[in-house]
Each structure stands twice: as C-alpha cells, then as structure tokens.
Amino acid sequence: GAVVSQHPSWVICKSGTSVKIECRSLDFQATTMFWYRQFPKQSLMLMATSNEGSKATYEQGVEKDKFLINHASLTLSTLTVTSAHPEDSSFYICGYVRGRITNMLNTEAFFGQGTRLTVV
Amino acid sequence: GQQVMQIPQYQHVQEGEDFTTYCNSSTTLSNIQWYKQRPGGHPVFLIQLVKSGEVKKQKRLTFQFGEAKKNSSLHITATQTTDVGTYFCAPRYTGRRALTFGSGTRLQVQP
What we know:
The structure holds two protein chains of two kinds. By secondary structure, chain A is mainly β.
C-alpha cells in the first residue's frame, strides 16, 4: 500500500510557541491531503483539506490563523500550530486519498502515523 | 457538519463471539468506507461500498450497505484478539471532497 510519513511522532512544547508537523506521501503524488485531530477515545475530527498549490479549506470552527496549512508540493503538506495552548494537546493525523476525489471512486485514504502534541 | 453516529460506542466480547457495529446517516450517501484504528495507531482502510444493498466479505468480516444508502454495518464472526481496535465508518457525500469519520466503535476482545 501507499506510504505516508508523518514527522515528528511526538512533540512537547511550551505554551505560546509554534509547532510544525510534516506529512509526506512517499510513493504517490497527492493533490489532496487531510488533517485531523483526535482526542483520547474520540473520533478523528477533520480540521482542513489541503490542496496542492492553493489555499486549504478549513472546517467550521477551525481557526485558520492558528492552524496554518501549507501544501506546496505534491508530496509534502505541513500543519503549523501557532501560539500553542494546553488545549491544543492532541493527536494530529494527516492523510491523503489515492484516487481522484471528483469521481468518488478508488478514494481509499492512507494515513500518517500521527503526531502526539503535548503543550505544557 | 454533523458527525455520523455509530452504535455501539464500545463493545467488550469474549474471543470467539461475534461483533457488529452500525453506522447510520440521516442523508443519502454516495458511498461509504470502513477503517480500523488499533490503539495508538492510525486508521487503516478496510473496504469501500458503493452500490445500494452491497455486501462484501473479507475473511471473517462482512460489510453491508443499506438499500437506501443511509446506513451500513460491519460484522465480525468469531472475534480474535487481533480484532481489537476502533472501527470507523467514513461516509462519503456527493459533491463533498472531505473525508470525515463516524463516531467509531471501540472493540475489546477478552482472550
């Protein structure tokens, strides 16, 4: 299957600092990537859809100025949590679909290993 | 948008017992996918259902898509400890690119 590399796998940062999470698709050029946040024993909540070469589409309630997403190439998307607070502590996961979204077929998604962020 | 609910939220079974999780949407779906997430891991794709009434099997796993394309189920026959994890449905809606997940069902299997 396709491989997605997410880095770092865990990070601890101080309140007020920024953290960048990288997500690379290793064997596929992804035009669309997804970023999720997952709290313990809860589902994955979609934060934004990252589009290569254009602005990300954020879900309702997600602050675009706080969670900066950059998808500058077909193999790399980054999520930067700016001015982190303890309530931002969570598990962040990236993912991309292998097929074309437009035809809704063959849209199996592949996910990175996740990044556990702890803000102290 | 509103998250699709899965029931049950949590199930604890003895190894060898069957398990079923249900995913219910209030609106018609284009298709639906299922994923499994092991504790501490990331979601892994299991299956995609597209047609009304579709049934697909993967060894001990049986997936169904309702006739109205509003609900789906995953049934595991004779659970094993390797089945432990959280099972998520991922409903897909026409015209919507985002991939969202249901609330999930956490399965615990007692050896």
